[in-house]
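Predict the structure of NAD(P)H-dependent oxidoreductase.
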Amino acid sequence: MRGFQMGKILFVNACVRPDSRTLVLAKHVLGQMDGEIEEVRLEQEPLAPLDWNRLQERDRYAASKDFSAPMFRYARQFVEADEIVIAAPYWDLLFPAVVRTYLESVTVCGLSFKYSPQGVPIGLCKAGRLIYVTTAGGPIGGKNLGYDYIKALSHTFYGISDVTCFKAENLDIVGADVDAIMDRAIREIHAAFYN
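Done. Here is the predicted structure for NAD(P)H-dependent oxidoreductase.
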C-alpha cells in the first residue's frame, strides 16, 4: 500500500474515549497519507436512525434526484472523498452503534450508488481506498465483523475495491504487553505504506 496522490481524506472518527487506542492507530495511518483531512466525529454529530418519517422524506428527495437537503450531507461528503479512514473500536464483535447509523446516512441510492438495469449495485463514490482501524480488549480472530461489514458495503455499494484493516487486539488481557501490541500494529501500518 503506497500513499495515494494528494486529495481529500475523510476521517470518520467513532472513538469516544479521550485516550482511545483506536484513535492512536488512526493518527498513525493519517500521518502516512497526503491530503487535506476532513474529520467527522460521530459522537458530536446529530445522527439518528431512519424512522418512517425520515425514510419518506429521503425517498421523496431521492425520487426527484435532489440531494441538496441537509440529511444528505454525510453521503455527499463520503462520495466526494478521495480516500476514507474509519476509526471504530471493536465493540460487541462489531463497532459502536453510531457507525451503523452513519452508514445508513451514507448509503443512498442515486447518490453513493445506483442500480444497473439488471439490478446490480454500481458504486458512485470517488474514493480509491478505504482504511478501517480498530482495537479490541480481547481477541478479534476471525470475527472482525465490523470490518467485514464495511468491506462488503464498500465492494457492493460504494465501488471502493481497495479496503484494508489495521488492528490491535488482546489489549485488556491480564498480563498483556500493551505497548508491544500497539508498537507491532504501528509497525504494520508503516510497513504497509512503505513496502
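The chain has six helices and seven strands.
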